[in-house]
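Thread title: Can someone regenerate the structure for this chain?

I was given the following input by a collaborator and told the matching structure tokens would be attached. They weren't. Posting the sequence so someone can regenerate them.
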Amino acid sequence: MPRLRGKRGFGLLLLLLLGLWLGFRGLRGICLHLLRVERAHWGTLEEQLPLELVVAREEELMVAPASGRFLPLVQEGERVAAGTPVARIFSSKEGKPVELRASRAGQVFFRWDGLEGVLQPAHLEGWLPRDIKRLLATAQATSAPSQIQEGSPCLRLVDNLAPVHLYGLLPERDIPWQAGQEVSLRLTSGVLLQARVVGILEANPRAILLEVNPGREELVRDRVVKAQGILKTYRGVLLPAKALQEKEGGQKGVYILTERGPRWQGVKVIGQVGQEVAVEGINPGVEVIANPFWVRWVKPR
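Best answer:
Regenerated them for you:
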């Protein structure tokens, strides 16, 4: 009977070990199923500074030389040479229509806000933010009427070849920009512009004055534009920041999912913006485990 009990106990032990092994295999399978992967890809991260910029450009309002029915002869935003007929006024006092010719080469707009004579590039430097705010409050969006009075504004002529100045407020935190520096701006349309820092006004709040080359429609059409200042750029393989792990000794890396399970891969972090990091040390296209918490239950290679 003792030998029987010994065999029975050994059998129970084998069953227990088998159950544990199957349980571990099951747990490992569950954890493998819970792993969420994202494909790493090559790209660029930008540390951005949101800016709302007041536009000052070389422009003038032209006034009607007579009263009467106003007829534009060119399209809104059309580029014309100096002396080009841009509008015609049919006056009851005149024997024939009165033509209005462009006083300079530029782009013609039949909409204005009344700030054309004040917000000029040469006037902006030294203005305080509160002065700009008060001035903007007086702006009145106006379009050329079909019936116009002599001496009243009828169109806006913009020198589309002259540099444009942009005035915006800065946050309290320090930014790595200084006078004379070439910087990058990304408009809401996605277009990237190169700008020169004319100056930084140490007022409360601080303000920045930028100069850009003309050419973008927003810069000759709108009084205020929104943009992102590009403070830093990181180029590399992009992956979720939560996928990044740090081992003892400070080595950083990620777990890559292979056919045999998770595999540790050390990486060099180039930079982080928000929830994404740019790294070196892995190839674009590899599947990175985005929730490495579950890797501890799966023996990595």
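Residues 184 and 194 are 5 Å apart (CA to CA).
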